[in-house]
Amino acid sequence: MFKKTFSADLKAVGFDKDELPTEFEGYAAVFDNVDLGGDKIVKGAFAESLAKRYPSGGAGIPVYWNHNLDDPFGNVGKTLEAKEDDHGLRVRVALDTETSWGKQTARLLKDQRVTQMSFSFDVQEGAFVDSEDGYFYELRKLDLFEVSVVPIGMNQATEIISVKALKEKERATEEKTTQPEAPVAEETSEEPSVASRETAARRLRAMDL
User: Fold this and answer.
1) Global pTM?
2) For the chain, how many helices (H) and strands (E)?
3) pLDDT-based confidence at 17, cuts 50/70/90?
4) Buried b (16+ CB within 10 A) or exposed e, 138-175
């Protein structure tokens, strides 16, 4: 299961100045932007997952604080609405302010001390693309599991899962430690599976990329 973080420009709604917000709006994902991991999400990537899992206009997606799936108090609300527009995956969230985690999340949103969202997903369809805009992995269909409110700066820990970066570091290491070998044709038709991308992510973390 992968995670991606975006600067979401969150907007707390449904409260007076002396009260905590009960709802907020923002983008859990942004389209057509190559991120730090070399991935780009295209519009339509969430359409099938939303239709199958959350057919009532995207209502009911679990919302967590920083992907704390192991703690029941880490669930701070659920979506009232989730839909794709030209910019990305826009969500409207109802906060559970009856819990301590939900109440603190509301405080952080009200004071604008948190401004980012993230989401957990599996890749159903994707492909490497080499274009005039650069080399990236295009995410075309994603299975969405949850969305989270996350602290600023966490994207550096969650975004670095690029297979391209792994290959470049391995190639540089081989050039320093081995004699040149006959060039190997790069893969052009076969696309890496989700499992191979997951393995690459683990190896990247091990190499402190």
Assistant:
1) 0.70
2) 5, 9
3) low
4) bbbbbbbbbbbbbeeebbeebbbbbbbbbeeeeeeeee
